[in-house]
Specification:
By secondary structure, the chain is of the alpha/beta class. It folds into two domains: 223 residues, Rossmann fold; 47 residues, no CATH class. Helix content is 44%, strand content 20%. The chain contains 14 helices and eight strands. Strands 1, 2, 3, 4, 5, 6, 7 and 8 form an eight-stranded mixed sheet that branches. Helix 3 crosses helix 5. The longest helix has 14 residues. The radius of gyration is 19 Å and the shape is globular.
Length: 282
């Protein structure tokens, strides 16, 4: 049976109704209660890796395309005064969900309606702009990056994580065809790595870190480092009893693990794989 949805909320409602998609719902933090989902994100390996990249002191932060507010919650828990920008008013996956989360948690999160290309904030206002899976949804990538640069203070940090990347333009349709929700509401996209980097640099940013798909839990969550090692060990074993356990032990050796990741980064061409960027405003 073919399913369709006119917006993101309807697509997520449908997904939550599918018994065989429970793991995906939880991995995407679409489960309820929202406060429990947000706290699970705050203690995840993904957030732990992000927290190590956050600038100090923790002052004023903007969460762009905040969705349900899980990153807004995590930023506020770290001590930031958070503004959450979200275009959707939805009580499930949008601004009203964030308002409910802020009330229930008692955390300092102010919610605004708007898009990344036209933000309702003064220039040089934030110390940090954080964007989780946002840039690949931009209507105009260059304008979105320029707006983010505008609202950041000089010396401020821009962190964009979990952005879908393709190796060539013809890979885009392959990625879209494989996305679990794109066929329902048509809202997904992906760019070439150089397109992200060009838009970020053209806005005026200095790119400090580019994290490739297997380089950090930021990109490969909800998988953990341990789960990734176990999966690679299983593949290396080719079904031979006992070999997977031995291979996993070898992969725990830091030099071996680094070498394996280096090779995988060179050969990984999956359409829609995830990259993350840490940038500084001049």
């Amino acid at each position: 049976m073919k399913h369709s949805a006119s917006n993101w909320e309807q697509a997520v409602v449908w997904l939550r109704q599918q018994p065989d998609q429970r793991a995906l719902v939880e991995a995407a933090y679409y489960d309820d209660p929202l406060l429990r989902a947000a706290e699970r994100y705050h203690v995840s390996e993904e957030w732990s890796a992000i927290a190590a990249l956050l600038p100090k002191p923790h002052l004023r932060a903007l969460d762009v395309g905040a969705g349900r507010g899980i990153a807004s919650y995590a930023l506020a828990k770290e001590g930031y005064e958070v503004s959450a920008l979200e275009p959707d008013e939805s009580g499930l996956v949008g601004a009203n969900a964030i308002r409910s989360l802020a009330r229930e948690s008692g955390l300092p999160i102010e919610v605004y309606i708007g898009i990344s290309e036209d933000m309702p904030f003064p220039s040089a206002h934030f110390d940090l702009v954080f964007a989780r899976s946002v840039l690949h949804h931009a209507r105009d990538l260059a304008i979105a990056c320029a707006e983010i640069y505008r609202v950041l203070k000089p010396g401020g940090t821009f962190i964009a994580i979990r952005e879908h990347v393709i190796s060539k333009q013809t890979d885009l349709q392959t990625f879209l065809d494989g996305h679990p929700l794109h066929k329902m509401y048509g809202g997904e996209n992906a760019f070439l790595l150089r397109q992200y980097e060009e838009a970020i640099r053209k806005a005026g940013f200095r790119i400090q870190i580019v994290l490739s798909p297997l380089e950090s839990p930021i990109n490969f969550a909800p998988n953990t480092v341990g789960a990734l090692r176990a999966e690679l060990a299983r593949r290396f074993a080719f079904g031979v009893p006992g070999v997977a356990t031995l291979a996993e032990s070898v992969l725990r050796v830091p030099a071996v693990w680094s070498s394996i990741l280096f090779v995988l980064r060179r050969i990984d061409q999956r359409p829609g794989r995830l990259y993350s960027f840490v940038c500084r405003r001049h």
